[in-house]
Every structure is written in structure tokens, then in C-alpha cells.
Amino acid sequence: KAGVTQTPRYLIKTRGQQVTLSCSPISGHRSVSWYQQTPGQGLQFLFEYFSETQRNKGNFPGRFSGRQFSNSRSEMNVSTLELGDSALYLCASSLDRFGIAGLNEQFFGPGTRLTVL
Amino acid sequence: KNEVEQSPQNLTAQEGEFITINCSYSVGISALHWLQQHPGGGIVSLFMLSSGKKKHGRLIATINIQEKHSSLHITASHPRDSAVYICAVPNSGYALNFGKGTSLLVTP
Lengths: 117, 108
Description:
The complex is a heterodimer of chains A (117) and B (108). Chain A is mainly beta and 117 residues long. Helix content of chain A is 0%, strand content 51%. The A-B interface holds A 33, 35, 37, 42-45, 48, 50, 55-56, 58, 88, 90, 92, 100-108, 110-111, 113 and B 30-31, 33, 35, 41-45, 48, 86, 88-101.
């Protein structure tokens, strides 16, 4: 079974631009979560989607948004990029057998490393 | 919010040593995750446990729900175990709160 894939793997943008990152979950997984990882803040939860619905959102500004498609693939978008948005963005998928993503094993993708200049 | 504290922050061990990494959290939970992150970024889920102990190869994870504490043990450590180990707990059901991670270096 193929693992979680993320595209692109690396991205360089300039301040003010916007960016879209993509995540394809493991086949059969309907829950997709997004995380931001920076050296200063560590891993932080961005949002989680299940069956095209956002179930929870972390404490990030409205510039960060996402969506999930009917095939469970997910995208996240960051508008008006700031230098502080430079980070590794990880997505994770899970089977969500118990109806609560945090109680299911999560399978992580390799991440997209975003650099904002 | 469920605060997660890990210790130690950094750990250097010699090959063959027994290693323990600790994780404490502030709010009662139903499950705790241990993750491993190698240089380059990829994260692998090692354990998800809600009680007692789980073992996988040389890795052992334990949890004490009453004391809100979990430990990850590595027996007979090897240089390939060098990585960052992160503990995470559910927050509001759909999110995970992460510890800052423990950076482990195992030298030959």
C-alpha cells in the first residue's frame, strides 16, 4: 500500500505570495491532518478534515486554509506569505475507526519544506 | 489545552546503553502517541497506547494514566536509533498536542 504523499517536497516563495500544498492520504484513510513544524515552536496542529469537512482548526491566522476533496486528497493554502511561515508542513492520514482522529494511529507524509524569502 | 512536557531535551548515549525518555501531560487522555523523526523530516508513528505497556523490537512504551506520565525505553541502543522522539496527546479530539521532542544521539 502506498504511503502518504505530499507535493511539492520543497518550495521557495517570497513574502506576499500565496502557496498551495497537496497531500494524498493512504488509500482508505478518510481523515487528513495538517501540521506545521518550526525549530522554535515545534510541531503545531493546523487543521483536520474528514469526509470533506473541517472538524477542528488550530490556533493559526485566517491566512491558513485547507480543503478536502471527495477522494480524501487534501490541500492547504497559505496566502500573503510571511517570513515566519517558513517551516516544514506535514500531513498525516488515519483510518479514524473510532471517530476521533487523535485516538487513531497517524501516518505521516514526508513533508513540504517551505522557505519564504 | 493539554500541555505536554518531555525530558530530557537532548540525550547522548553509547551504543548498547538502555535509554529512557519521559513524557508528562496535564489533562487526562484516552491515548498517547510516540513518534520518531529522523534527520530530513520524515515522522514515523512508533506507538499509540492507552494503558499498560507495548513492545516493538527493542522499543518499549509504558503509560500511567493516573500519574499522567509515559516513558519510552530503548534497549541495547544502536546508532540507527539516533533521531528525535516526540510524544503527542489528543487535544479536543481531532488534534494532537506535541512535546518539544527529545533529540537522541547514539555513538558507536
